[in-house]
What we know:
This protein is α+β, with helices and mostly antiparallel strands. It contains 13 helices and twelve strands. The chain is 46% helix and 17% strand. The mean pLDDT is 93.
Amino acid sequence: MNDVLKWYEKAGECGDVVYSTRVRLARNLRQYPFPNRASESQKQEIETKIRDAILAGNSVAASQFSFVPLEILSDEGAVSLVERHIVSPEFIADRRNKALLLSDDESTSIMINEEDHLRIQVMKEGLSLKEAAEAADRWDTLLGETLDFAFDPDFGYLTQCPTNLGTGMRASVMLHLPALAESGAMSRISANLSKLGLTLRGSYGEGSQVTGAMYQLSNQITLGLSETEAIDNLSAIAVQLIEQERKARKELSGGIVLQDKIERAAGVLKSAKMLSSGEFAELLSYIRLGLSVGLLQGVTQEELNGLFVRMQPATLSVSAEKPLETTERDILRAKETRRICAKLTEA
């Protein structure tokens, strides 16, 4: 990881509730079978074509991206990509014939030979659906100048999984919803969202657990509506959830129970000698909440966002440049968290 400021070290619009925005486009090359049917030599050809489309051109993109064959990564390095939301967990399950094009600030990644031949992903801090979609579209256009994408007039972009047919777009917003979770409203909200073609999952998508009250809200429908319609729909629902969360925070913040949890969390993070990843996520959630409702001060949202990513297990090992045992990670996590949270005071 280089010294360029990463997207997850920033705080964007509605940053008190929205951690991040992601827009992903799935594309396939017309002349090749889908990855699950492609031979090793075909996958190598696909990798070369996509890499050259970015790095061999005269575009400014050539200087912004690094090319990373997944097979050269350590296990910790691969898992760290998932922890930093650069790639999907499925992408690193089998790293053969797979590669990644990654921008310096880690906001744009192009996964090669994932479920589809390529997946363009743009990450932004805060609520930035329109901006992320526009950025993804620019990369799609640039790649389309030299690559022939599989497209059908009736079905749109062709994808290996039929659920991605059409726009091939998946958009999501990462929301911090501790007050709604505390009030027991999440089951009802999730059921209502499914009727609207949206889904609420854990922070790493399908099948992942919710930790630190972080929820991923994403679109489910890609066929029969435009990218703009999908983005507008997701944005409208995200705004509603933000308003509900802020209202719930206001109602809960006056109670002694929540105040006690927030102050206890601050006390632990300022003094702990060891912190597991699970405990860290739960306590940091209360710190975020305390800052947003005015019970705590002294630490910025940007600092917490960067800390949240850097303290993930594999990312800690990558930073240490060696595999770390669980106890070693817990000690390092506590040390760095104490450094940041030492500035916390009651407002």
